Amino acid sequence: MIAAIALGDSTPSMNHHRTRMDASRLASTIDHTLLQPAYSDEHVVQLCREAQQWRFAAVCVFPSAVARANALLDGSGIAVCTVVGFPFGATYGMVKAHEAREAIARGASEIDMVIDIAALKNGRPDDVLVDIKEVVEVSYSLGASTKVIIETALLTDDEKKIACELVTRAEADYIKTSTGFAPHGATVDDVRLLRAQCGPNIRVKASGGIRTLDSALAMIEAGADRLGMSAGVIVMNEWNARNATA
């Protein structure tokens, strides 16, 4: 029998409520991630098998692996997520929108885009808003959701708050902390800030550096709806070991 852990949430988010964590709910928060430049076809196969075994929410792969992942997961109910403008966001919104369109055509149903980080840091929020909207509009028109990566490690708290406002105004589905390519990934404090600052319809994805069960649970407790991680199997095995009964 698997024990359940009560998780409370003090934020006003409509996406969170007091509930009891169990293995199934924990697994349903995980985007099982493979974003290594030198990935192999065998890595993609393993990723998809693990996602099916544990019933993760999604696999997250590079655009070049979307078609293969989609074929492997066909009919499983597990989403295929991909990244655009990744990992630095330093390209045109129209290019990111084109990447999204092509990925959706090949089977992606979730798009994780990176904002124009430099535009935000140089005081051009209107440019960032247009950047986000171009991807959101394409994704929405084709039935896919959009997660907006703001790369919290590179932003001040004031810049994070501006990013939250822009993501809310663009009507994206999620705001996401990190790419995993910055000096550090998600922090509990950042997740709390994003949850408090974003509109009630915006969900939060924490990613980068989540490698243990305790860190995963801390992110959920802070307000994360999704967890991007390559250590999903490790975390689930840790859950089962911790909650096993004699």
Protein described:
The protein is an alpha/beta fold. The protein has ten helices and ten strands. It has helices spanning 23-27, 41-54, 66-73, 93-105, 117-121, 125-141, 157-170, 188-197, 213-222, 232-243, and strands at 5-7, 19-21, 30-34, 58-61, 79-84, 110-114, 145-149, 174-176, 203-207, 226-229. The strands form two sheets. It has an eight-stranded parallel beta barrel, surrounded by six helices. It has a two-stranded antiparallel ribbon with strand order 1-2. It is globular and about 55 Å long. The protein starts with a strand and ends with a helix. 47% of the residues are buried. The model is unreliable at 1-18 (pLDDT under 50).
Task: Considering the chains and any ligands shown, give keywords for the structure.
246 residues; alpha/beta; eight-stranded parallel barrel; two-stranded antiparallel ribbon; 10 helices; 44% helix; 17% strand
Helical content band: 40-55%
Kindly report how far apart the N and C termini lie: 9 Å
Rough outline? globular
> So what's the oligomer here?
single chain
Total number of beta strands: 10
Helix and strand topology:
Elements lengths: L4 E3 L11 E3 L1 H5 L2 E5 L6 H14 L3 E4 L4 H8 L5 E6 L8 H13 L4 E5 L2 H5 L3 H17 L3 E5 L7 H14 L3 E3 L11 H10 L5 E5 L5 H10 L3 E4 L2 H12 L3
Parallel strand pairs: 3-4, 3-10, 4-5, 5-6, 6-7, 7-8, 8-9, 9-10
Antiparallel strand pairs: 1-2
Helix pairs in contact: 2-3, 4-6, 6-7, 7-8
